[in-house]
Task: inverse folding
């Protein structure tokens, strides 16, 4: 059994491209070309050169000694927080901007929730001198002022999404509507392993550099490519997909996916999509999503803006359904506590998304000789105000 | 014979109107349908509101949000429509997104449609292939016609494929856009309309998106069998209520 994408664009029963006909030519053009373009030596060369010299890859695989001592196991942190712009998101936007150029597109659109993907997109557009339009929910614009300012400084136009609940899902709707209205010159840089096929697979392949590096780095440090456990937080699922990618079909490696429980899975204020979601269609993908009995998509909640997406990528829906991955839901409170703990133990201020992954150590016991690799997907600079408010700093 | 097929055989150009069920008020669904038929409309698309209508512009988005706030659901819509065939005889089509139908159960949804007298469905985000492989048999078992969209960007090859899967009419989206009134049609539309007319498809075509008045209706139906008005109608009932529907229809025909 493979946990990778099928020829038709499905992970098990999840995935596909449930899109209006107006989007078909755009998505089909991408589907027919993405693998070919990614396989071109000149593409690979340019992609890897930018990842090295501009993004700062490879990111370290850091043995967290004091954290390991505390939890009596061997913990390695994959330092995606050290990437340019402060998170893994830029691995994908570098890949997609090169893709857009090869497809002859001269206008980029993107959606953003907290603004991390918007900043990563605005950054690569500035780098390439391409027009950039970022859709962001009106409510998020108010909540995430520093990232809005960053995008503007980078030359992007930020357009408020005024429809529906005026957050990430609506920003995504607006980006898709923009693409419907501009089918020829525009490329849509989606921010996670979500959306219609081929997006989940393309984004996973751009993020796969993470597990590619883990393999060689772990071999050097531990004499094996295989950790016992991989841990990553899951919003849409892109940093997790990158972490798991080269290990998906290697069942010696256990996979842990961490979702945001918000105030608690059963509190009504949660973003634990796999547990609370039902199968359905969101943003062109058949996957698990939070919805009413009538099939209306609902608003999730998490203290972490990067994890409150009502759906989850189809790869992860399949990992959940098949039991290949263990899904753990972490509350706001536990995440914040673990985030602060990392600051004190290792001198690293994590993004609140990543803090959810760190909280797994309080919920699950590992053996002393287990090798556990955790994707530290981003740094906490963007969350400073949240940490200040939460801990009354 | 399905009411849609019968209607398509009439000699005239057809006017179809889209409205959002449960809008402006939750109980307006049935009176809207009756008023539309009395005003001389040929066919009706009943919009089943969805929280995330990807293919729709601001007007229909807003009406959908309001209808959901009013309490509209698939179940309630079927309840409202249960006696509709005692008074209304023109073809009725439900237009909605796929997720609410999936949650209702596609087979159960189709069965309900047949029970209340719905003739067809338009589901913009149900791809032709998936329909053909997984759902066609269910639709046909319940006597439902599924209507597919084409756009100016759709290739001839794909249009021929869509024509082969269709058994009612083809919904010709007038330009690359979400729903909503444009200023009018230009050369690009005219050449698109001509291109499609020259393809001699087996299914008649009905043009939608951007039809808002007598002028655009006349232009579209010069080439096609009919035209569909959505946003402009929704805007009219927003401003004037469901009792002035005849005024809107008179201004088109
Ligand atoms: C630091 C960080 N981690 C994780 C995520 C969640 O996204 P994904 O699940 O696609 O990795 C985000 C999203 O904004 C993020 O900024």
Result:
């Amino acid at each position: 059994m493979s946990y990778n994408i099928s020829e038709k664009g499905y992970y098990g029963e999840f995935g596909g491209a449930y899109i209006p006909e107006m989007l078909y030519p755009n998505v089909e053009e991408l589907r027919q070309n993405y693998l070919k373009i990614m396989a071109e030596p000149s593409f690979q060369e340019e992609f890897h050169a930018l990842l090295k010299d501009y993004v700062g890859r490879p990111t370290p695989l850091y043995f967290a000694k004091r954290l390991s001592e505390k939890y009596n196991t061997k913990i390695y942190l994959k330092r995606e927080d050290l990437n340019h712009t402060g998170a893994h998101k830029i691995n994908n936007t570098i890949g997609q901007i090169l893709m857009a150029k090869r497809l002859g597109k001269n206008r980029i659109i993107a959606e953003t929730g907290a603004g991390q993907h918007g900043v990563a997109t605005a950054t690569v557009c500035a780098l390439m001198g391409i027009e950039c339009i970022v859709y962001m929910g009106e409510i998020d614009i108010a909540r995430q002022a520093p990232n809005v300012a960053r995008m503007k400084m980078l030359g992007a136009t930020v357009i408020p999404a005024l429809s529906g609940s005026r957050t990430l899902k609506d920003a995504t709707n607006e980006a898709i509507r923009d693409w419907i209205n501009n089918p020829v010159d525009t490329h849509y840089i989606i921010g996670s392993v979500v959306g219609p096929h081929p997006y989940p697979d393309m984004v996973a392949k751009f993020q796969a550099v993470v597990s590619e590096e883990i393999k060689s780095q772990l071999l050097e440090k531990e004499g094996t490519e295989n950790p016992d456990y991989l841990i990553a937080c899951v919003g849409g699922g892109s940093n997790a997909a990158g972490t798991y990618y080269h290990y998906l079909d290697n069942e010696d490696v256990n996979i842990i996916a961490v979702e945001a429980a918000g105030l608690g899975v059963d509190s009504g204020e949660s973003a634990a999509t796999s547990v609370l979601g039902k199968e359905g269609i969101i943003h062109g993908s058949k996957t698990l999503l939070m919805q009413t009995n009538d099939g209306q998509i609902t608003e999730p909640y998490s203290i972490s803006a990067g994890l409150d997406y009502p759906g989850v990528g189809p790869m992860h829906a399949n990992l959940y359904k098949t039991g290949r991955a263990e899904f753990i839901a972490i509350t706001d409170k536990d995440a914040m506590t673990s985030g602060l703990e990392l600051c004190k133990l290792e001198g690293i201020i994590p993004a609140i998304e990543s803090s959810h992954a760190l909280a797994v150590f309080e919920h699950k016991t590992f053996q002393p000789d287990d090798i556990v690799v955790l994707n530290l997907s981003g740094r906490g600079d963007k969350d400073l105000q949240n940490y200040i408010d939460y801990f009354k700093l | 014979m399905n009411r849609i097929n019968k209607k398509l055989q009439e000699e005239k150009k057809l006017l179809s109107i889209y409205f959002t069920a449960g809008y402006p008020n939750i109980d307006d669904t049935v009176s809207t349908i009756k008023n539309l038929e009395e005003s001389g409309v040929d066919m009706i698309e009943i919009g089943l509101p969805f929280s995330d209508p990807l293919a729709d512009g601001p007007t229909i988005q807003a009406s959908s949000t309001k209808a959901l706030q009013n309490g509209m659901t698939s179940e309630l819509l079927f309840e409202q429509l249960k006696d509709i065939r005692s008074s209304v005889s023109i073809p009725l089509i439900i237009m909605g997104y796929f997720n609410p139908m999936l949650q209702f159960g596609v087979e159960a949804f189709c069965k309900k449609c047949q029970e209340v007298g719905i003739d067809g469905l338009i589901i913009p985000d149900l791809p032709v292939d998936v329909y053909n492989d997984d759902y066609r048999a269910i639709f046909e078992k319940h006597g439902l016609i599924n209507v597919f969209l084409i756009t100016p960007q759709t290739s001839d090859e794909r249009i021929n494929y869509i024509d082969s899967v269709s058994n009612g009419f083809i919904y010709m989206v007038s330009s690359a856009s979400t729903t909503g009134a444009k200023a009018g049609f230009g050369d690009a539309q005219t050449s698109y309309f001509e291109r499609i007319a020259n393809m001699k498809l087996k299914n008649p075509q009905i043009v939608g998106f951007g039809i808002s008045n007598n002028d655009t209706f006349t232009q579209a139906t010069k080439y096609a069998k009919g035209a569909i008005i959505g946003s402009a109608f929704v805007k009219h009932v927003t401003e004037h209520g469901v009792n002035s529907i005849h005024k809107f229809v008179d201004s088109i025909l």
